[in-house]
Amino acid sequence: MNVMTGSEASLMWQRPDGTPPSVPRPWDRGPGPVRFDEQTESWVVNGYEAAREILLGDGWSSDPSAADASRRALRAAGIEDAPLAQTMLTLDAPDHGRVRGSLRDVFTPHCVAAMGEGVEAIAAGVISGVAAGEPFDLMSLIAEPLPIAVIAEWMALEPDVAQLLWDETSELVGALEGTVLPTEALPSISGLTALFAEFLSAASERRRHPEDDLLSLLATEPELELDEVVSNAILLAVAGHETTAKLLGTSMIRLCSGEPGERLIDTLGDVGADGVIDELLRLDGTAQVVVRAATEQHEIAGRTIEAGARVIVAIAAANRDPAVFEAPHEFRPDRERDRPHLALGYGRHRCLGAALSRLELRIALRQIKARQPRLAGPVTWHPSGILRGPTRAPMIFTDGGDR
Q: Considering the domain boundaries, does residue 193 fall inside one?
């Protein structure tokens, strides 16, 4: 089992443009594959093998309220459950399998691949609308509207609902982060309440009069109650949009950083190749951590984790474990993939939308590369230790513009 040095631990959180995180996180510090962090009252797992053991094994719950520390934080915030607690994100068996099973068939790689032509058209419409030679913000003009447009099209959302989803993104992400790692300062959920009402109305209508869309598929699933339909539809819309937007932003920063001619985007033949996508996910995956609660006592990497303890599995650290990944901080698209990265999860909770996220990233990177992009100013970053990505990324397309 690998034990990281302090220097390795500090490097693992370096951003694509070389700047350090803006918000110190307890799981950034300290050596060892498994250690206890007093600040979060949680066990922190940095090692790859320990992380896989927890994500794949039995005796762990994804429900925040199953951990003593999370229950205390929720009570201190005056609520019984974290926002969106009853979704695939936090449900355990058998309910997790029941809810996830209602969507499993439409998220297969084969079914998602059939969406390629539609995603290509949506991406082209978004990216071609940006003028060459003029600085613009990648996040607000491309990275955020693209996945929103894809999920809105797939769910057949009305334009005002899609706009509400976009307007309330930051609050909704805060709500989701509160679900993953509850604290005494959970964010306001007024935006979530408004979106819930809109989705409830739409889901009720689709249950009575189903159409050929993802929301209708959920709404007509006999195994799901209507409130489960709404909660999981919102989860798919918010999590799928936000993680993909941040991944696209961070990937473009990595690809475009450096001197002209030496940047990755200049040297890679195909930025959408599988090996490139996997390295971008390994190094720049949006979800930095997942949280589990021990439902029984475990021995992990020589440490005893008692039932009721909260465990923070540091996915980003595990993906840089030098015992598994040679030169873990280097971008190597030709890596052997015998030990897969954990950026999209592992085990029964592996990201349901993994194939769609990869498809959107592949298409967007290829179309953006064709516009000859370069960074045009300093990047600002999302102030979170749970979801990683830029909030603003100035860029310029140079195809036919000033060079």
A: no
- Residue in 199, 227, 194 with CA at minimum distance from that of residue 213: 199
Among 266, 214, 248, 264, smallest CA distance to 363 is for 248
Q: pLDDT tens-digit profile of 216-250?
A: 999 999 989 999 999 999 989 988 899 999 999 99
Quick: pLDDT tens for 35-70.
999 988 999 999 999 999 999 999 999 998 899 998
How is 315-384 classified by DSSP, letter by letter? HHHHTT-TTTSSSTTS--TT---SS---TT--GGGS-TTHHHHHHHHHHHHHHHHTT-EEE-S--EE---
213 lies in some domain? no
> Is beta strand 373-375 parallel, antiparallel or unpaired with respect to 394-397?
antiparallel
Distance CA 149, CA 352 (A): 19
CATH number at residue 86: 1.10.630.10
Residue with tokens 């925040």: 64
Residue 213 CB coordination number (10 Å): 16
pTM: 0.90
